[in-house]
Amino acid sequence: MNRYQALITAYHAGKPKYLDTIGLSSAPFAALQSTLDDFINKFDLDRAVSSQLDALGLWIGIGRVVRSTINGIYFSFDTEGLGYNQGSWQGVFDDMGFTALDDEAYRTILRAKILANNWDGTMATLSNIYQGVFPDDQTQIFAVDNLDMTMSVYLTGSPLPAVVQSIIAFGYLDVKPGGVRIADYTMVSEPGPLFGFDADNKYLSGFDKGMWGLDLKEITNG
After folding, report:
1. Cα 18 to Cα 14: distance, rounded to the nearest angstrom
2. Which of 26, 79, 133, 143 is disulfide-compatible with 4, CB 3.0–4.6 A?
3. Among 163, 166, 210, 157, which residue's Cα sits nearest to residue 187?
């Protein structure tokens, strides 16, 4: 029973042919309204897939295909960091200087673009903006002002997939004040906090807890 049949008065409610007639004539309109109601979910950044994400990208202002050739990200057996749930499938045009990002990597870029567009430009709120790029809280991200017109960005928690490492190294997730250069991106070599002295939290920890950091630009040739 659709929403229009539910409005039938008690006088006609017991007449099957009347119910069927109303159902047959109103079904296309009920289906159309149901489809329109679902548009919000279809184009929600956290739920959209495939061409829906492409449409969001046109609105947000960044495409799925990036110009830089990204190497060392494709699925491979017996290659550390490129196995199941780590490496990406190679696309048709990936060897021609263009890389089409998968849905999850593209979603990450779109989220960063949205946050950058809504950022107030201050260092005080920058760490929250960066953390919003990875809302699942499996990866923690924070920035440090080097006080020389450069800043460093650190990623702790779970290491990122190879393709996300590369798009970060190529600067597609750069969120920074005007005139400031990002000197380096450092990511943990294993799940956990980065190694550091005089700290013990989800970002930094000492011996037996903290992990060595890896320079993303070095490991991705970014």
Report:
1. 8
2. 26
3. 157
Task: Tally the domains of the chain.
Answer: 2
Is 175:168 a contact under the CB 8 Å cutoff? no
Question: 216: Cβ–Cβ under 8 A, 6 or more apart, which residues?
Answer: 165, 168, 169, 184, 185, 186, 187, 222
Residue 44 has phi, psi (to 5 degrees) of: -80, 135
The reply to whether the predicted model has a pTM over 0.70 is no
Does residue 99 lie within any of the structural domains?
no
Q: Does residue 75 lie in a domain region?
A: no
Q: Quick one: how far is CA 124 from the chain centroid?
A: 23
Domain contains 65: no
| Domain boundaries, position 7 | 3-42
Q: Tens digit of pLDDT for each residue in 167-218?
A: 788 787 788 888 888 888 888 888 888 888 877 777 788 887 888 888 887 7
Kindly state whether residue 77 falls inside one of the protein's structural domains: no
